[in-house]
Amino acid sequence: MTKPLGVVTRGTTGVNRLRRSDRWLVHDDLVRARLSAAPDPLVVDLGYGASPWTTLELAMRLRAVRPDVRVVGLEIDPARVVPARDGVVFARGGFELAGLHPVLVRAFNVLRQYPEEAVAGAWATVSSNLTAGGLLVDGTCDELGRRCAWVLLDRSGPLSLTLAWDPFTVERPSDIAERLPKALIHRNVPGEPVNTLLSAADRAWARAAPLAPFGPRARWRAAADQLRAEGFPVRRYRRRMRDCVLSVPWSCVAPTGPTAR
After folding, report:
1. pLDDT tens-digit profile of 83-140?
2. Is the CB of residue 167 less than 8 Å from the CB of residue 76?
3. Radius of gyration for the alpha carbons in the chain, expressed in angstroms and rounded
4. Residues 59-86: pLDDT tens digits?
5. What is the spatial order of strands in the sheet that 104-108 belongs to?
6. Domain 19-185+235-250 in this protein, CATH class
7. How far is it, in rounded angstroms, from Cα 153 to Cα 168?
8. Other C-beta atoms within 10 Å of 51: how many?
9. Cα–Cα 20 to 30 A to 80, which of 130, 172, 205, 248?
10. What is the largest CA-CA distance in the chain?
């Protein structure tokens, strides 16, 4: 294998930290379809950190979609590579994916530690190693996994942005801004589409305040309906959501100005 591409990051992790993104992955129609149809259901968890808990959890949850899923955890730091366990293999690798060609790559809290100008190259390198129809999830979350955001991509580029948060510990949608993926976190300024979306979400949340006695989930459903009425293409989910989720096509938030940093 060639030298892994990337740099060693902090490696902070924790049990159940990525549960919100995992829940989304196992219920998302596109992810389920691509994983179910793959001749080789290989999934890579890129940059799992100092301990492998979230990789093991990902494998467990994806088996509900594809029981024969093969999960490989990759870490650029050789000291973090651990022996295989519970049907999951661990190896050294970076954005080149150690020569693997998976149908799904999850990279959480990896690019957040890189400069913004490195994102496009990292996306391109990972995407070029995906199998046909493969998907990449580039995301960020807080230490307890209560505030999460991720971009879903395929070989053609970004497809969507999703924000997911604990209904009971977040006061307003724009609080998730601190956890936006690296491609967007410096774009939360007036004039940029992601700022326009978050500002509108806060206004819709405020207007839905009369529903607060029914709980934050009911209030958020009303706020999301308000956003749709205003023309924002907020995805509508058929099932009841445990989390508050805001998902839009990438075209709704794609940066318009020059690189901020």
Report:
1. 999 999 999 999 999 999 999 999 999 999 899 999 999 999 999 999 999 999 999 9
2. no
3. 18
4. 999 999 999 999 999 999 999 999 999 9
5. 88-92, 70-75, 42-46, 104-108, 135-141, 147-154, 157-165, 244-249
6. alpha beta
7. 29
8. 15
9. 130
10. 59
